[in-house]
Design a protein that fits this description.
- The mean pLDDT is 96.
- This protein is elongated.
- The strands form five sheets. A three-stranded parallel beta sheet has the order 1-2-3. Strands 4-5-8 form a three-stranded antiparallel beta sheet.
- The protein is mainly α and 465 residues long.
- It binds glutamic acid (GLU).
- Glutamic acid (GLU) binds next to loops.
């Protein structure tokens, strides 16, 4: 059996964490088994569906690397097909036309409620043999007794008593299929073998099972994954720091980190927290899905992101960080310079935004370097400037070919001046970077080269204390 999964977003908003996780699970399941991953845009709600959201969801999926097999399906373009399916069910006697008005149906529900029963349609048109007509709907002839059961990879064997389900509407009087009708018609037509979705849909599933049965089709395997909660165990929302995928993209997170973090919300693989994408594909076979809700933790997401920042090859990171760089006033540098620069900051940057901000001081020309006011107040002292003068002559003759040689040059100066490193660290950092943090001085100087190092020192030398 070829595994075929689908992600079926409704384009009523951007792709959010919950939806992204469903998409990731479906994609991984298909890729793990060498199957197919399909995308179906559920845009039949004309009022709430917006094209901009479809575009945004597709862009987020592309950004996450969730490639689909074939072009996306749009439910709005498949209306004739749904009608055919309903006609088949009418012809086989599994569905019937109903002429009850919404008010009549409401009155039946009211009556049932008053009798302490579950509100339901009472089936009065079931055996009337009605045909189509204005205001009429098509209903499923649901079984009156027995059980509706399905197997779920998360919840196990799920059973609902048939009496709890009424003759649901399959096709409305405005010539549109209902949600459950369209979903099942599509899942059958697309050969979906695994329906994985949020467990907010679990109450739809028995209804969908009845439609499968009415269409004479075997059930797929279901997997209803629990909701994602905030750290306080409440429904996840913005106040927990949960965002849409496009916002994470703007915040400078890496798609591989989002994938790694999200997949662990509801799935485990021993104690392993950090995965590459190929490792995820190899490990994710749909087992070990957790039945308890997972909590979203923005701090952990950043921690996972920092790990992926360290693991990403410098050349790739250069391309990823470029859109985040403020390019005003930057000097021209070649690819090799960018790669070395990125590898210097890579171990300490949590996001691409951080990386871009930190890198900027080593991309500006000496004349354009910006100085942090506090760093300047702290480091620019008479003693500091005296050391800088001594360092300048030592560094004018140094070999810039390796950081070891530069490290030795600094040591030579310290020995000759009888000084400790902490006497020169702040003033050198101020000179080279404009601030007091950053990588090792020897690495920075190796990257900058002699002319740029000396030009930066000269600028601070000329500053008034
Ligand atoms: N369109 C539904 C949603 O966005 C998904 C339905 C399904 O996966 O069956 O929640």
């Amino acid at each position: 059996m070829t595994v075929v999964t689908r992600f079926a977003p409704s384009p009523t908003g951007h792709l959010h964490i919950g939806g992204a996780r469903t998409a990731i699970f479906c994609w991984l399941l298909a890729r793990h088994f060498g199957g197919k991953f399909l995308l179906r845009v559920e845009d039949t709600d004309m009022e709430r569906s917006k094209e901009e959201y479809t575009t945004s969801i597709l862009a987020s999926m592309r950004w996450l690397g969730l490639d689909t097999d074939g072009e996306p399906y749009f439910q709005s373009q498949r209306m004739a097909f749904y009608k055919e399916c309903v006609d088949k069910m009418l012809a086989s006697g599994h569905a019937y036309w109903c002429s009850c008005t919404p008010d009549e149906v409401e009155a039946m529900r009211e009556k049932a409620r008053a009798e302490g029963k579950k509100p339901r349609y009472d089936g009065r048109c079931r055996e009337m043999g009605l045909g189509p007509g204005p205001g009429r709907v098509v209903r499923l002839k649901a079984p009156l007794t027995g059980e509706v059961a399905f197997d779920d990879m998360v919840k196990g064997h799920v059973v609902f008593p048939a009496e709890e389900l009424d003759d649901m509407v399959l096709y409305r009087s405005d010539d549109t299929p209902t949600y459950n009708m369209a979903v099942v018609a599509d899942d059958i037509d697309m050969g979906i073998t695994h329906v994985l979705r949020g467990d907010d849909h679990v109450n739809n599933t028995p209804k969908q099972v009845l439609i499968y049965q009415a269409l004479g089709h075997a059930l797929p395997i279901f997997a209803h994954v629990p909701m994602i909660l905030g750290p306080d165990k409440q429904k996840l929302s913005k106040r927990h720091g949960a965002k849409a995928v496009i916002e994470y993209e703007k915040d400078g997170l890496l798609p591989s980190a989002i994938l790694n973090y999200m997949v662990r919300l509801g799935w485990s693989h021993g104690d392993q927290e950090l995965f590459t994408i190929p490792e995820l594909v190899a490990a994710f076979d749909g087992t070990s899905l957790n039945s308890a809700p997972a909590s979203f933790d923005p701090e952990k997401l950043l921690w996972v992101n920092a790990h992926h920042m360290r693991e990403t090859p410098a050349a790739t990171l250069v391309e990823l960080v470029k859109p985040f760089l403020d390019t005003t006033g930057l000097a021209a540098h070649d690819q090799a310079y960018y790669e070395k620069l990125v590898s210097l900051y890579q171990p300490r940057a949590a996001t691409l935004v951080d990386l871009a901000r930190e890198m900027r001081c080593l991309l500006l020309p000496a004349a354009g370097l910006e100085y942090d006011a506090k760093a300047r107040d702290k480091a620019l002292t008479a003693e500091g400037k005296a050391h800088l003068a001594g360092l300048r002559s030592e560094l004018a003759d140094a070999d810039y070919g390796s950081k070891e040689a530069l490290h030795e040059a600094l040591q030579r100066y310290l020995e000759s001046a009888g000084a400790k490193f902490k006497a020169i660290g702040p003033i050198m950092r101020l000179a080279l970077l404009g601030s007091l943090g950053g990588p090792g001085l020897d690495e920075i100087m190796e990257l900058l080269g002699k002319d740029e190092t000396l030009a930066r020192i000269d600028r601070v030398m000329s500053m008034e204390i």
